[in-house]
Amino acid sequence: MTVVGIIAEFNPFHNGHLYLLQQIKKKFPQATIVVVMSGNFLERGEPACIDKWIRTKQAMLAGVDLVVELPVAYCIQPADRFAWGAIKILNELKIDYLCFGAEHAQFDFSQMAQKVAGIHGNFQKFNESYAAAYQRVVTEKVGHPVDQPNDLLGLAYAKACQQLAAKIQLVPIQRVAAAYHDQDLNPRQKIASATAIRKAWQQADQQVSNYLPPGSWRIIEEQKPLTWDDFWPWLRYRIFSSTPLQLKTVYDVAEGLEYRLQQQLLGLPMTASFDDWIKAVKTKRYTYTHLSRVAVSILLQLKQTEVERQFKQPYLRPLGFNARGQQVLHQLKKQTTWPVIVKVGQEEVKKIIEVDYRAGKVYELASHRPQDLKRSPMIIN
To answer: Is the pLDDT at 123 greater than 60, yes or no?
Structure first.
């Protein structure tokens, strides 16, 4: 059985994702498709617009055979650590190929990963973000810029495969029609960025349905997409009610950032939004994405020890599968020493998925939909 892996957020599942699946099925007609998908909080430091169960259903209706959750401790990380966590899970699932969209599918990502493997240093220039410094050094090593979002993720996947000695063959697939950060829908095409789709959906633009497969849109057309604004009251309370010392115990809060987070909030009017606060906190040293990840950590009260435990004690959490996906799970259970969480009870909450359970409960504050306790994987045949 050939198994193809995808690392995704599906926020939400749209025609660009469908195109990726179609290209995979052309290349590997008989393959089983396994997706490692971010849960309810995402890599760029934001809540998912719809919950992980709805996104799982969207993906499976479009042809995915198995969806496994990427734990939140892996999700809210810079590209390298995000990729490492996802590849570690896919390697345990014994996939043969990793397919991913790329702005430059002609790049040899594995070769580039070898060239940049020796990059070290903390890049702590006060007039330059870590991301900018890292991209500058990569350009020097590779000989050309690698600065597009999906290309950078492709490089991160290749580096993770090498670090984990994973025998996974990378298959980049050329992105078409829309750039990752495009803000607006193009009426002349049917593929748009997830950013543009979410923006149009929030504005109740009726054209948004043209950019999602019909089955995906029917599932969500009556819903309101969630944003940081929906979680801002709870985040603001966390920041207001914490001392700087308490904020410093939160994962990724360091180097005096705890003072700036609170001081900038105290200087804003009570009508200020999440975006107002982020812009006030922003400096050349910290990107908006970094600060947004920190905001998730504060909202979830995520601690350094909890993140370290996740990286040392991985587990597998299937969110949905069909008959072909079930075969992968059946084979997996014969080989893995990792816990496979099929149903969440009190024991799992206390010992294994405490952080993800907490993330689910926080997400429920805005979604009003139960996320974890007693939930079993979705079965679609």
So the answer is: no
On whether 211 is known to bind a ligand per the annotation, the reply is no
Token digits for 257? Answer: 């950032």
| Overall pTM > 0.90 | yes
Q: Where are the domains of the chain?
A: 3-225+313-379, 228-307
- 101 annotated binding-site participant: yes
What angle, 0 to 180 degrees and rounded to 10, lies between the N-to-C axes of helices 228-241 and 274-281? 60
Would you call 120 helix, strand, or coil by DSSP?
coil
Q: Residue 18, annotated ligand binder?
A: yes
Both tokens of residue 124?
């702590």
Domain 3-225+313-379 coded CATH 3.40.50.620: yes
Percent of the chain with pLDDT over 90: 81
**40 assigned binding-site residue:** no
Q: Is 11 annotated as a binding residue?
A: yes
Across-strand partners of 53?
none
Residue 120 known to bind ligand = no
CA distances from 192 to 15, 179, 184, 200 (A): 8, 8, 8, 11
Residue 360 above 60 pLDDT?
yes
Was 317 annotated as part of a binding site?
no
